[in-house]
Amino acid sequence: MPRSDSVQPAATVEVLGDSELQSSTLESLTSAVNYHDWLTTLALPYLGSHPIELGSGLGDYAQSWLDAGVPRFTVTDLDDSRLRVLQRRFAGDERVDVKRLDVFRPHSARHTAFVAFNVLEHIQDHVGALRAAHELVAPGGAVVMFVPAFTFAMSDFDRAVGHVRRYRLADMRTTYEAAGLTVERLHYVNAPGLLAWFAGMRLMRMTPGDGPLVRVWDKVVMPTARRLERSVTPPFGQSVFAVGRVPLTN
């Protein structure tokens, strides 16, 4: 049986944003299968044999990484409802541990990687959050982050779900270095997505959700963008992908 922590009182880090909106958005975007596969594939080479994920949400990324061959995985969340979803989803899966993680009081561990997709932008002290890697990850292990890009694209939806910032490459590099991590890979992802986000979310004040437009965009635009960005690094994008390393002397 997996070792699954019971739901405990709230930790010291604050969960920002509308929790129900966050969960409903995660559920509504499950049809964007090409986009999801693109993102999980980006992180996969850096995860190693037993990564820990910060803010696992409904567990979709974790499940994809497990399906891709990651032999052991620790999922975490601070939101009680999503933590229960994770406990139910991975019940009986001996490869998965489900835990509540407060990054400002991390337990001592030696995971092969610390990964978070669309989580760091919710945390006021993002440098402090990344410093948790020194406790959670073995020396030389990876710290893999995926975050929204560019302040000018900050929308009402961003604020509603608890985003306190969006990043440029320089911002992410500075954050990693301030946390004592060495940057290994850093670039924008999904150039057409930034334009669509700015038009739809910032200007038209839409809310992300499933529907014909999302499915067509995922089927037509995402494969093309992914193919092009394999050979050409875009000068902008909807998101920033970053990989750093915990020092070997940690």
Strand tally is 7
Main sheet makeup? 7 strands, mixed
Low-pLDDT segments: 1-11
- Helix/sheet category: alpha/beta
Question: Portion of residues in helices?
Answer: 25-40%
Oligomer: single chain
Major sheet: arrangement of strands: 3-2-1-4-5-7-6
Q: Report the portion of residues in β strands.
A: 15-25%
The best one-word shape is globular
The whole-angstrom Rg is 17 Å
What is the rounded distance between the termini?
Answer: 32 Å
Mean pLDDT: 89
The SSE order reads HHEHEHEEHHEHHEHHE
What does this entry look like structurally?
This protein is of the alpha/beta class and 250 residues long. Helix content is 39%, strand content 18%. The protein has ten helices and seven strands. It has a seven-stranded mixed beta sheet, sandwiched between helices. Strand 1, helix 3 (60-67) and strand 2 (73-76) form a beta-alpha-beta unit. Helix 2 (33-43) packs parallel to helix 10. 35% of the residues are buried.
